[in-house]
Amino acid sequence: MGMGLSDLWYENAIIYCLDVETFNDSDGDGIGDFRGLTQKLDYLNSLGVTCIWLMPFFPTPNRDDGYDVADFCSVDQRYGSIADFVEFTREAAERGMRVIIDLVMNHTSNEHPWFQSARSSPDSPHRDFYVWRTDDPGDTSDQVVFPGKQEGIWSFDDVAQAWYLHHFYDFQPDLNTANPAVRDELRRVIGLWLQLGVSGFRVDAAPFIINHVGVPENNYTSEPHLFIQHMRDVLSHHKGDAIFLAEVDEGPTIIAEYFGGGNEFQLLFNFLANRSLFLALAEESADPLLSGLKDIPKVPDTGQWVNFLRHHDELNLSRLTEVQRQTVFKAFGADESLQVYGRGLRRRLATMFGGNRKRLEMAYCLLFSLSGTPMLFYGEELGMGENLDLPERMSVRTPMQWSAGQNGGYSTAKPDDLVRPMVTTGKYGYRRVNVLDQRRDAGSLLNWMAQLIRARKECPEFGWGVGEPVSTNAPTVYAQRNEWSDGGVAVAVHNLSRQPCEVTLDLPADEASQLLCLFADATCNTADPVPPTFTLDGYGYRWFRVGGFR
């Protein structure tokens, strides 16, 4: 029996990423919590969100914003209890919103009981949960994930009297996923959270999970994708429509392997489109995007790309050429204080664009019309800024700005007691950028974003359909036609330049004569001539449907 559209819910979702600790504090201790998040579900529902992605909320020493997990099977007590979590997922489900959570299968905290046991003795039952060696690994500085922040990927442990593998920080030892006992533990973790109401997992650092450096040869090391297939089987066995959304930033040929034949990850972040899009935005030309999208591999019927502009990490430009990277840096963050790891920008989109509202609208409109599922990072709907006083990528993870009141309405605690400082000053401070003020302003970015999401829901062709670029006469314009199997056709047109232009679309005559404008930056009279010709303002955009409303 084939999968129905309800099983493929993720192919037309609106994903919203947030961190519980920085979203809303219900008890005044300065730390966001699940009760506070539950109070804000009506806000997310009214915005149009259909899937909430939660960053890690497990018990943690918190040396890497929760990605150093000390217990996969509990909620950090600062955020509440398991009961609070279950109430949150139940309330989200009542509003038609699904929940996915971060699953860190690559590593644990060095304070996790498994690692403490593993280091205590070579005979520990947890020894092979991690990867060890007794010979000096030498210089591995060329393999680190965070240049300038790590010296290598092996560290010596005085208790174990051996080196352990860590592709990330030295306090995050890598799990040995080739070990059946580790897979059994991860299987239990997946089963637990699915039972507690989640609809899937965002898989952190997926390529590193199957990079079995220093592990004895077995089926899972000689054919590493078997591990992903095994975990996918576990997931689907527990819950037929549950999903894995994986973080895989690789080149085009390698990234496609993570879909498998439809039997590995269902969703992958579209890093390929992301870096091409930023180069196109920087150059104000459609060419980099057209070129980049050509390289994107086709996905299986049950697969999908998740498109994004900004998320909780840096804007990673490492796979651009040096010249291309410098072009983006010059446009959106020329000062070195705005850059990180020599490869990325630690800014939100609003500040990259200098608060230019028209440019923000065009970029988000383009994001939501690219083939795939769109993802928003919390606060992007307001045009929030960052706090560059915070280290590295933490700059974009400041508390949500709800009002112009105390601590931006995020918490009643003293400002010094907040888990992270608010953005307080300048044009992006919470007194000038917040939910309450924007709700009251019909022309605000927040209300515009809700309209965009509503329009996107009325255009399922962008999610379920097949997209192809449309030729135009304007080098600054990216146009795309998406067709769904039910016969629906949607066309989206975006001017990446600040200069207005006249654009002619190369569409079949029968479609060109039936264009109805659905969403636009200005009064949108459907083009009359065939082929359709119209003027776009600087950073202008149009969405059309062939043949009218559905």
Explain this structure:
The protein is 28% helix and 16% strand. By secondary structure, the protein is an alpha/beta fold. Strands 1-2-3-7-8-9-10-14 form an 8-stranded parallel beta barrel, surrounded by 4 helices. The longest helix has 16 residues, at 180-195.
CATH architecture of the largest domain: Alpha-Beta Barrel
Which structural class fits the helix and strand makeup?
Answer: alpha/beta
Global geometry: globular
Q: In percent, how much strand structure appears in the residues?
A: 15-25%
| Residue runs with pLDDT of under 50 for 5 or more positions | none
Return Rg in Å: 24 Å
Any idea of the CATH class of the largest domain? Alpha Beta
Q: Give the strand order, joined by hyphens, for the main sheet.
A: 1-2-3-7-8-9-10-14
CATH homologous superfamily (4th level) name of the largest domain:
Glycosidases
Amount of helix: 25-40%
Number of strands: 21
Number of helical segments with 4 or more residues: 18
Arithmetic mean pLDDT: 94
CATH fold name of the largest domain: TIM Barrel
Head-to-tail CA distance between termini: 28 Å
